[in-house]
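## Example pair
The file below holds two records. Each record gives the amino-acid sequence first, followed by its structure token line.
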Amino acid sequence: MMHMSKKCLATLLLAALSLMPGCASVSETHAPTSVEIQSIQTREFDVPYKIAFASVVDVFQDLGFTIQSSDFTTGLIIARGNTANQSVGLLGAMSEVRGKTVWNVGTAHLEELGNEKVSIRVSFVTNTKVMFEYGASNESSKAILDGEFYAKFFEKIDKSIFVRQNLKSRSNTD
């Protein structure tokens, strides 16, 4: 009888182990591919290029960004915003942090696809600069790859396009 329960226990143990994921399995959180990144950062709009370009500038400004450069011909817009200065005290035993600055840079590229159709790709990077004593500093950048973040940004562009189109149609009827 004792021999039988060891056999049952061994069988149950093997069955349980076979249901568990192995060490060689692929992690559910993986680094996105360039195609995946492009898909969350790009949308197409059925609108004239001029309205799309102005709408993207409006959304950047509505979110507190400052347009650093823009070129209507190439469709490139670069904006900087959300600057925050923080004093973070001590970092490590000997290095005193004098301040930490965090800012975001957003870029947009608009491409005219044809008859009143525009492709807009936006990307955002969070930059951090930590200042230490004696003028030393450390800078780092991290791309924002959150799909929900980009979806909300494109919703704002869509709303801005809607407003501009309605203003344009109103001024044509006056």
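Second record, same layout:
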Amino acid sequence: MPDLNKVLLMGNLTRDPEVRYTPKGSAVGDLSIAINRVYRTDDGQSREEVCYVDIVVWGRQAETCKEYLQKGRPIFVEGRLQLDQWESNGEKKSKLRVVAERIQFLGGGGGGGQGGQSSGGGYKKPYNAAGAAPSSYPSEGGAPAPSAGGNNPPPPQEPPAEDDIPF
């Protein structure tokens, strides 16, 4: 039977990310998130339950988390479960945590190193308020943005009319 070890989590950081380095120079980041769940009891009362999850992230992604994330920031984590086991003072201990394969920063920016700009993840529609595609996007100086390779890309086509949608 095939095995699957995949975790998808979304929550808020409970502390600022910490990064340390292995003797070979690889970055290792430690994160912790809180995942809130609101539910109603049988008698109709609203209750909130919080689950705290420890996450380890490796390499450049760990350094990026340290640079751009801070306590309270929402993130989406895709990864796998890992059980760590050790012995301390003759007592066996274990801890289940998530090894992140991908972390996506959610919500607006305003934190560490972003200079008040919002972070990635947003989508801006390439149409102005009148519904027309702009011929070029201005740069900070107000002049049209330079094109890569000298050719301007073709403007986006208009969306199909409702009659043309095949479903």
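Notes on the second record: Residues 7-105 form a domain with the OB fold (Dihydrolipoamide Acetyltransferase, E2P) fold (CATH 2.40.50.140). Residues 110-150 have pLDDT under 50 and may be disordered.
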